Amino acid sequence: MFRVYKVSDFDIRISDLSVAMLKRQTRWVIVLSFFLILLPVAYLLLMPDLSRLKKENPKKTALMEYREKKLKEKGRKYRIDQSWAPFSRISPYLIKAVLIAEDDKFWNHEGFDYEAIQKAIEKDLKAKKFKFGGSTITQQLARNLFLSPEKSLIRKISEAVITWRMEKVLSKKRILELYLNVAEWGEGIFGAEAASRHYFGKPSSELSPEEAARLAAILPNPRRYRPIGDQRYVINRSNLIYSIMIQRGIVIPEYKEIYQEVTESIESSSPEGTVPEETVSDAPVSEEEGIAEEK
Predict the structure, then answer these.
(1) Which residue of 18, 92, 121, 142 has the fewest CB atoms within a 10 Å radius of its CB?
(2) Could you tell me which residue, 29 or 251, shows the higher pLDDT?
(3) 83 vs 94: CA distance, rounded Å
(4) 70-109 pLDDT, tens per residue?
(5) Is the dihedral angle over the CA atoms 178, 183, 185, 190 positive or is it negative?
(6) Considering only CA atoms, which of 125, 128, 132, 126 is closest in space to residue 151?
């Protein structure tokens, strides 16, 4: 005796659905496998040779080329003003002012400040605008050396990969030296030495604490702000940086009144305080070798 089973339309539909799901899963496995194979190859082909930066100073950065290209499109000439200064010949006041202003946890993180990134994302979500803020000095250096300043997800991923590799290959001191020499400080002005001579008429080694704070204050937007003059943002932000330098003993004023004057200046600023809180951290800068102490 043979028993006959009737296959319903419902059973057939279930079977077809299972086959479709299996095909979809297989397709995703193939795509994922492709990317797993492609990523290491792309990494080897696209990753810049960072080891040469241990001793070799870059002559022209991606940011310089980008600025030059944009001005040429407008029919304007672009002159690059840059003079390389070794780490030992950059004012310790400027070094510490830049760390306070841009990346207060520089000596302690491995390329990424996750707390700053979280705050930046929260602000972006609140404002419904994605600006990809919270960049460390290493991230900024990776972007300046190798990438376009135009914001995109691909650029941010590339920046993260280069940042991670840079922290593995280069010392913290070298990363900071490179940054201070290629950072943009105005139209066509790159590096601390060129900025110091352009704005204050002196080498970067001779910068005073106040001048250092002024230069550090304009780094978030050096093409809009100038370290000299009476722009309110620059005054408020440089005063804040300078007051932190005093609090940490980086600067020892000759008279107590100097500190009181700076404090009163900050307190008298607008209630909302025109200084963005994410640009000047509250965490102390760690003391590391290579940062000269005040004599």
Answers:
(1) 18
(2) 251
(3) 16
(4) 988 888 888 899 999 999 999 999 999 999 999 999 999 9
(5) positive
(6) 132
Count of CB atoms situated within 10 Å of the CB of 213 = 30
What DSSP designation does 184 have?
Answer: B
The residues near 95 (Cβ < 8 Å, ≥ 6 apart) are 176, 180, 291
3-state secondary structure of 103: coil
Segment 190-217 shows an average pLDDT of 97
Among 224, 244, 248, residue whose Cα is nearest residue 234:
224
Rounded Cα distance, 100 and 1, in Å: 89
CA distance 202 to 200: 6
SS3 36: helix
Question: Where does the pLDDT of residue 291 fall: very low under 50, low under 70, confident under 90, or very high at 90 and above?
Answer: very low
Residues with Cβ within 8 Å of 48's Cβ and at least 6 positions away in sequence, in order, are 145, 146, 162
Report the C-alpha gap between 276 and 115 in whole angstroms: 16
Check: CB of residue 173 under 8 Å from CB of residue 290. yes
- The answer to pTM > 0.85 is no
